[in-house]
Backbone:
């Protein structure tokens, strides 16, 4: 079928490897001359070396971005419709090269190739086209102020934005006229002026810290752990009070009532936690199952987990690839051992898989209690915890008994239960009879320690603007 249309995975072209730092539409070596190795998570073998950016490189990138954002620059003078056209052209280029880009992403991250192609790349293309359409549709309002005045608002670009985000998250800030520090290098080919996009491969304590504390950056967006998110918010406060958007961790509840469609609930719960080897901030790892169906749900979930296919990301039958790194694999295995030692029942999995690469078997725990580490900490791995509940009130209280609040789901055929859960659970996104139903058009973000601000949709776009009120005295006012 689909695989036949694509053919075998192509060998990545040398033109698609970007081992340098990208500033002002040009490739540069790092100021320090440092490089770092990149490994294939499926084999543990080194792929290449990449230039390592640090504070000096961040300074260069910020200077380039500030030139691009300066009053009177080509970027600031460009019509909004033209900026939208450039984003649309970029989407076309990503679509043209999507097989090669998916090949590189799969090699770098260990994701199954087909998932990378049809989820990550298609998501990038749709996001770029969505915000391309929004570029000339950012409207202000007129306000009926008392007195002889005409008052209106306008949304202005916030300035230079540093984005510390996963590669699957495309830059949505360019349409309204922002200047960004991260986005795909195809943006240069799409016609974006120098300095609008600057790419800095590096590490959190060096490049990331420099971005968070830089006085020349007006906003930072970060996707990652809650621990690092706190450090970024602190650095922003200590420097220039730059705006901060944080999309952080989650320990997301998935609530299954006895009247739910069992086949649907089991499969959706499975995909909800095991997608991308569990390395997903929305992973529904805390599964609460109503007592009458608990044993059957556990049995069927274990059967499904045992059927899950682990293998090479290039194999079209592979459902699950490796963890992103050896360190992450070790953390997942350590948390699995904590679940065993604290008394949870290991139903299947629980071990590393294969002789090479960073694989972890699909793992299912039953008889999990809320005080166990596996029920409280974000695992970021293929580990499903299934817990029992008796009443609606009980499960709402337990679902909210967490520091996180990113996402939640409920499976039921009772609309009253569905609405009770969706309005009472403290989460930025709630799904009813589905899981991970995400879309570019919908705002996404968390409550509590899952972050602040929103990504995607109109709400996400507004995170990149300042609202200015302009008031003019009139000689005479008529309604």
Residues:
């Amino acid at each position: 079928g689909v695989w036949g249309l694509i053919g075998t995975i192509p060998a990545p072209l040398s033109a698609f490897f970007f081992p340098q730092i990208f500033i002002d539409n040009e490739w540069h070596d790092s100021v320090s001359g440092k490089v770092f190795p990149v490994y294939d998570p499926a084999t543990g073998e080194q792929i290449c070396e990449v230039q390592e950016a640090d504070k000096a490189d961040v300074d260069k990138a910020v200077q380039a971005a500030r030139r691009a954002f300066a009053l009177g620059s080509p970027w600031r003078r460009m019509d909004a419709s033209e900026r939208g056209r450039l984003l649309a052209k970029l989407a076309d280029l990503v679509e043209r090269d999507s097989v090669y880009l998916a090949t590189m992403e799969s090699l770098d991250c260990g994701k199954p190739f087909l998932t990378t192609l049809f989820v990550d790349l298609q998501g990038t293309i749709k996001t770029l086209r969505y915000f391309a359409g929004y570029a000339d549709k950012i409207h202000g309002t007129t306000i009926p102020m008392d007195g002889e005045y005409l008052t209106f608002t306008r949304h202005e670009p916030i300035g230079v934005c540093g984005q510390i985000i996963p590669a699957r998250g495309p830059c949505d800030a360019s349409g309204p006229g922002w200047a960004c520090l991260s986005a795909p290098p195809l943006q240069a080919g799409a016609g974006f002026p120098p300095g609008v996009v600057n790419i800095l491969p590096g590490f959190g304590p060096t490049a990331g810290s420099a971005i968070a504390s830089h006085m020349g950056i007006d906003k930072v967006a970060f996707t990652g752990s809650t621990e690092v998110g706190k450090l970024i918010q602190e650095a922003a406060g200590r420097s220039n009070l730059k705006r901060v958007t944080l999309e952080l961790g989650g320990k997301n509840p998935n609530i299954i009532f006895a009247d739910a469609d069992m086949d649907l609930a089991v499969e959706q719960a499975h995909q909800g936690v095991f997608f991308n080897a569990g390395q997903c901030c929305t992973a529904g790892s805390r599964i609460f199952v109503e007592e009458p169906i608990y044993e059957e749900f556990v049995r069927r979930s274990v059967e499904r987990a045992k059927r899950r296919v682990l293998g090479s990301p290039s194999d079209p039958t592979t459902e699950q690839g490796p963890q992103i790194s050896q360190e992450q694999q070790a953390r997942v295995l350590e948390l699995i051992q904590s679940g065993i030692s604290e008394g949870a029942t290991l139903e299947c999995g629980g071990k590393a898989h294969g002789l090479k690469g960073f694989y972890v078997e699909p793992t299912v725990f039953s008889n999990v209690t809320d005080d166990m580490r596996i029920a409280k900490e974000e695992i970021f791995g293929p580990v499903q915890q299934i817990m029992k509940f008796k009443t609606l009130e009980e499960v709402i209280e337990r679902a909210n008994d967490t520091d996180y609040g990113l996402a939640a789901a409920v499976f039921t055929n009772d609309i009253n239960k569905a609405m009770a859960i969706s309005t009472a659970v403290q989460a930025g996104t709630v799904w009813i009879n589905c899981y991970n139903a995400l879309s570019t058009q919908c705002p996404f973000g968390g409550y509590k320690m899952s972050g602040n601000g929103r990504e995607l949709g109109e709400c996400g776009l507004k995170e990149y603007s300042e609202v200015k009120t302009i008031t003019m005295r009139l000689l005479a006012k008529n309604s």
Notes: Residues 138 and 155 are 7 Å apart (CA to CA). Confidence is low (pLDDT under 50) at residues 1-5, 167-184. Residues 113-134 form the longest helix (22 residues). The chain has two domains: 7-248+454-466, 253-439.
